[in-house]
Write a structure and sequence with these properties.
- The chain is mainly α.
- The protein has two domains: 86 residues, no CATH class; 119 residues, no CATH class.
- It has ten helices and three strands, in the order αααααβααββααα.
- It has a three-stranded antiparallel β-sheet with strand order 1-3-2.
- The chain is globular and about 55 Å long.
Length: 244
């Protein structure tokens, strides 16, 4: 039997989005069946708590000093982040917004630096693997990823950069103008945010064993099983029955 977590139970009691609850429940069941019950519950609790506090996020908590060398860039970037938060709200966990805010917290946000060495700058006591998993999961949901990049690009003239070596930067692309917003169709937003959660849980699973690009055969098999288990017909039935 898979035991729930405190924040997941609270989300259920609040009547949270059935599709996101179903993905978290499916992840815990998968991890339980593979012998990683404790890890599965820990990862689920992390992001369930993030969904509970997503609407509390505010860019006002990250206001740069007017004397900051990168004041304009940081202000423009935070304006983009405010628009992103308004668009996605609690369909994304608080960690998503905190990770994007972290990109502007560094003394030089245009400089490429590795996230593990910058863990002390992460908001809300996040660890570097949580932030890295967020940034690894985003490109796996192409419409969501390019929607976010479009907002950032239009506000700053730059893009959000993240590499497989855990590096990050608000990168300069002088000749690049991104126009790939998802549009206003609710079903696309719902599909992409649910897909993001599934990929995020998978990335967290991989990061527990090492870098996503350096995984062994057994972990590859487990990730394949995970993606399959969260997108089966059984999963769709669970989505329909998760709402109280």
């Amino acid at each position: 039997m898979v035991h729930s977590t405190p924040s997941f139970t609270q989300l259920q009691e609040l009547g949270f989005y059935p599709d996101l609850l179903a993905s978290m429940q499916g992840f815990m069941e998968f991890m339980h069946n593979k012998g990683f019950c404790k890890l599965g519950r820990e990862i689920t609790e992390t992001y369930a708590s993030g969904y509970l506090t997503a609407n509390e996020f505010s860019v006002k908590d990250f206001t740069p000093s007017p004397e900051d060398e990168f004041f304009k860039l940081k202000t423009d970037y935070l304006s983009a982040l405010a628009a992103i938060h308004e668009r996605f709200g609690d369909r994304m966990p608080r960690h998503f917004y905190d990770t994007l805010a972290f990109m502007a917290l560094r003394s030089n946000p245009t400089q490429e630096e590795r996230i593990p060495e910058l863990e002390h700058l992460l908001p809300s006591g996040m660890d570097w693997k949580t932030a890295d998993a967020i940034l690894h999961a985003m490109p796996l949901c192409s419409r969501l990823y390019f929607d976010v990049q479009t907002v950032i690009n239009h506000k700053t003239g730059r893009i959000l950069g993240h590499g497989c070596g855990c590096s990050c930067a608000i990168a300069s692309m002088p000749t690049c103008i991104i126009n790939a917003a998802m549009g206003d169709k609710t079903e696309i937003l719902l599909e992409e945010t649910e897909s993001f959660l599934r990929h995020l849980l998978g990335q967290c699973f991989l990061l527990h064993f090492g870098l996503p690009q350096g995984m062994g055969p057994s972990v590859k098999m487990n990730l394949h099983d995970l993606n399959r288990s969260l997108t089966t017909t059984e999963g769709l039935v669970l989505k329909q029955s998760a709402h109280p």
